[in-house]
Amino acid sequence: MNMLLSQRSAIPELMDDFAQGGEELQQALRHLRRLNRIFGASGPIVYGVNYLWRKAGRPSRLTLLDVGSGSGDINRRLLRWADKQRIEMKVILCDVTEEAETEAKELFRHEPRVTFVRRSVCELAPGQVDIVTASQFVHHFGSNELPAIVRRLMEASRIGIVLNDIHRHWIPWTAVWLVTRLISANRYIRHDGPLSVAKGFRRSDFQLAARQLEHSELAVRWRPLFRYAVTIAKAREG
């Protein structure tokens, strides 16, 4: 297992091959929602958004952009958090595949606060939202690409960004390998699930990427279950 995952895997994920797709990918997105519930994928995002919201002075309105959203399921808990805090929130889901758009629009068909755009991370407009979130997204890029991706996400935000990804460690790798085989026969899920853990970054990687940003404040927190909640806030003027 690559010396207990001491190094990131360079093997590409099936979901990164845009020549594939169709019903098999749509099924994978549905099964991924089950995995997200089992492994608490929404927790670090809610934690990070709450942190940035408080740091920004608890504004009564927030706009969020979820980059690499897939079907966007983790935002359901975020909307419940916004209701509890009495925040007027709008969420924009952003992904590049038709399959993600189809699943997201079906999942949020009765939720007017959520919209979907098909767009890549390179097409984000500067300062278009308050907070940019990216859950299990940045590990799809190479280590040398991480600083540029983080910078692009920061440029699209007015307050800051929240990254949520799995800690690269043999315990979550084993757990994901077992659970994916228990709940799904989908080729994407069984291949990409454990691989996503093997491709994960660690605290030092995020710290290195943040050093290349000016006027920002980084916080990397370890959250259940073997996840990082990475928040990078833009320094407030004055």
From TrEMBL:
Record keyword Signal present: no
Residues in Methyltransferase domain copies: 65-156
Signal peptide: none
Species per Swiss-Prot/TrEMBL record: Cohnella lubricantis
SUPFAM superfamilies in the record: S-adenosyl-L-methionine-dependent methyltransferases
A GO BP annotation: methylation
InterPro entries with a match to the protein in the record: Methyltransf_25 (IPR041698), SAM-dependent_MTases_sf (IPR029063)
Top-level lineage group: Bacteria
Keywords assigned by UniProt, alphabetized: Methyltransferase, Transferase
Pfam families cross-referenced by the UniProt entry: Methyltransf_25
Gene Ontology MF, one: methyltransferase activity
Protein name: Methyltransferase domain-containing protein
